[in-house]
């Protein structure tokens, strides 16, 4: 808005436009934070998918071990040693996954703080003002529509991590089914194309306000190195 235009604004209208600018800035920040979190979330899922395959193998070995009698002079010593090795590794991998889920949960709760800032600013907005931000236009949805999207995306991400934590509590070295259930959950969450399209393409107020794309190589911020190391370790 030019200075000449501002000179003709009433104090009330000037204050309203300043509030709109603040809300729009918060919305742009939410778009960026959601996308950054989603990249982090996808990388964590890829890491967990590698670990869950290892847990699946350990579970199979453990079930075979406890159901067979080794031909050994001291079977109780042999079995105990083998069982301990499997259980120790199982618990070690489980702890890594637990840490991953906790990191994602903390990151989601940090997003909630930003959501509350946006909601607070939105609630101060005079919805009776007939401005493009309030009403929307042929190129933009209304700010109310975007507020609903902010809430929908947060609810999806928060429920996803709670579900993962719930499924993780069911993991047990004597239950192959629990491992397979968690594996299917990871597969479904990492390939939800409908949500990805909603977040990446529909949750956009205006493409012209988005930052310029950078080189894809420079944007690889997730733990690809960690994922590579996991693959090498488990081969």
Keywords for this structure?
GH10791, 235 residues, mainly alpha, 8 helices, 76% helix
Number of helices: 8
Number of strands: 0
The amount of helix comes to over 70%
Q: How many distinct folded domains?
A: 1
Q: What Rg, in angstroms, do the CA atoms define?
A: 25 Å
Q: List SSEs in N-to-C order.
A: HHHHHHHH
Based on CA inertia axes, which overall geometry fits? elongated
The percentage of residues in β strands lies in under 5%
Low-confidence stretches: none
Q: Structural class, from helix and strand content?
A: mainly alpha
Care to describe what's here?
76% of the residues lie in helices and 0% in strands. With 235 residues, the chain is mainly alpha-helical. The protein has one domain. Helix 2 runs antiparallel to helix 6, helix 3 packs antiparallel against helix 5 and helix 5 runs antiparallel to helix 6. It is elongated, with a radius of gyration of 25 Å. It comes from Drosophila grimshawi (Hawaiian fruit fly).
């Amino acid at each position: 808005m030019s200075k000449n235009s501002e000179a003709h604004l009433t104090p009330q209208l000037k204050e309203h436009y300043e509030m709109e600018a603040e809300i729009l800035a918060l919305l742009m920040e939410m778009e960026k934070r959601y996308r950054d979190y989603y990249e982090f979330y996808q990388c964590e899922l890829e890491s967990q998918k590698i670990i869950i395959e290892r847990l699946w193998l350990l579970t199979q070995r453990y079930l075979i071990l406890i159901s067979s009698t080794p031909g050994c002079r001291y079977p109780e010593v042999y079995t105990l040693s083998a069982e301990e090795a499997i259980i120790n590794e199982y618990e070690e991998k489980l702890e890594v996954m637990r840490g991953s889920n906790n990191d994602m949960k903390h990151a989601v709760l940090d997003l909630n703080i930003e959501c509350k800032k946006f909601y607070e600013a939105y609630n101060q907005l005079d919805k009776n003002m007939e401005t493009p931000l309030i009403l929307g236009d042929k190129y933009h949805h209304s700010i109310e529509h975007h507020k609903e999207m902010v809430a929908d995306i947060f609810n999806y991400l928060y429920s996803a991590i709670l579900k993962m934590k719930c499924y993780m509590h069911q993991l047990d070295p004597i239950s192959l089914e629990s491992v397979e259930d968690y594996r299917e959950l990871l597969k479904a969450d990492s390939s939800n194309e409908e949500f990805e399209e909603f977040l990446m393409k529909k949750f956009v107020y205006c493409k012209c306000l988005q930052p310029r794309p950078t080189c894809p190589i420079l944007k690889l911020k997730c733990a690809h190195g960690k994922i590579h190391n996991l693959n090498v370790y488990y081969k």
